[in-house]
Design goal:
TIM Barrel; globular; 295 residues; alpha/beta; two-stranded antiparallel ribbon; 39% helix; eight-stranded mixed beta sheet; 10 helices
Length: 295
């Protein structure tokens, strides 16, 4: 199988999936905190190449339990482009349980429910999408390309179509200034879309991202871990998802201590684990979040 540029595998639910690259880079590629595809020009991979890779994988793997489509935002593709790929995957890998993908709320919002239902019928069970924040202030500042209400509409379209949305959230993304609005807005969106998978990370600015320039210029004040712990706990307290929903949080803390559990059943246990961070790690409380993985 042939790959170009950086390839990012989603969370543990896709650990055994065959990764099929159908786009190169990210169609949006403007998020100020992200450097994943900054040096890669976006383009759609020709169907012939995709088909060749599918057949190559079939000759190599005796069993393909599932397929995951890359790169950063496969939902930008029209159904005219997506349908032949999804159809070919079902034909060549009949044993595959699903064909999931990375996506954006912006492009899911633009699709019709009927198009999403067609994707579901062709094997799409979940789309992994970065919400990052439910605050319109924060979404605008990080140039995410959609509003909180558009994310809610997109999420509800997916629910109607029977497709799950795996949501990513970034603690600290509002900086010191917009922390409360970041948490409040994110709770609202997550409760509305009732995601079955919520992955929460901590802001980890990279030196080659636009956000780093804002930090250097003093227009973005990095949060402390005291704020991060508070945001995590308040987020958990506010979540009223109907479930079942897998909640994971903590990646990019100094020791990457992840807490995980099912909502709503384990909500109180998760809250207690989150609250305990303040007492267990007093040495972190007044330190700013790490840059490039370093305190």
């Amino acid at each position: 199988m042939r790959y170009e540029g950086k390839i990012f595998r989603p969370g543990p639910t896709e650990y055994n999936s065959y990764l099929l690259q159908v786009t190169f880079g990210c169609s949006h590629n403007k998020c100020t905190f992200c450097n994943f595809y900054k040096d890669q020009q976006f383009r759609v991979r020709p169907y012939k190449e995709v088909e060749e890779d599918i057949m190559m994988a079939r000759s190599y793997y005796k069993n393909v339990p599932s397929v995951f489509l890359c790169d950063g935002n496969v939902t930008c593709l029209s159904m005219d482009r997506l349908k032949p790929i999804l159809t070919k995957i079902k034909e060549v890998f009949p044993e595959s349980a699903h064909t999931n993908m990375f996506g954006s709320f912006r492009d899911i919002y633009r699709k019709t429910v009927d198009e999403l239902k067609e994707m579901k019928a062709l094997g799409v069970e979940q789309i992994v999408a970065g919400l990052e924040s439910g605050s319109d202030i924060v979404l605008s500042e990080i140039q995410k390309g959609f509003t909180a209400d558009e994310a809610i509409i997109a999420g509800k379209k997916m629910i109607e179509a029977g497709i799950e949305v795996g949501v990513g959230v970034i603690l600290g993304l509002g900086g010191a200034k917009h922390s409360e609005d970041h948490v409040k807005g994110t709770i609202r969106v997550l409760n509305e879309i009732n995601s079955p998978a919520i992955g929460v990370t901590v802001l980890n600015p990279q030196t080659d991202s636009p956000l780093y320039g804002d930090i250097q210029a003093g227009t973005f004040e990095l949060p402390t871990y005291r704020q991060i712990f508070w945001e995590e706990t308040e987020l958990l307290k506010g979540l009223q998802v109907k479930g079942p929903s897998i909640f994971r949080s903590g990646f990019f803390l100094p020791n990457d201590e992840v807490i995980m559990g099912n909502l709503p059943d384990e909500k109180e246990r998760l809250i207690k684990l989150s609250e305990s961070r303040m007492n267990r790690y007093p040495q972190w409380l007044d330190k700013k979040v790490r840059m490039n993985g370093h305190l």
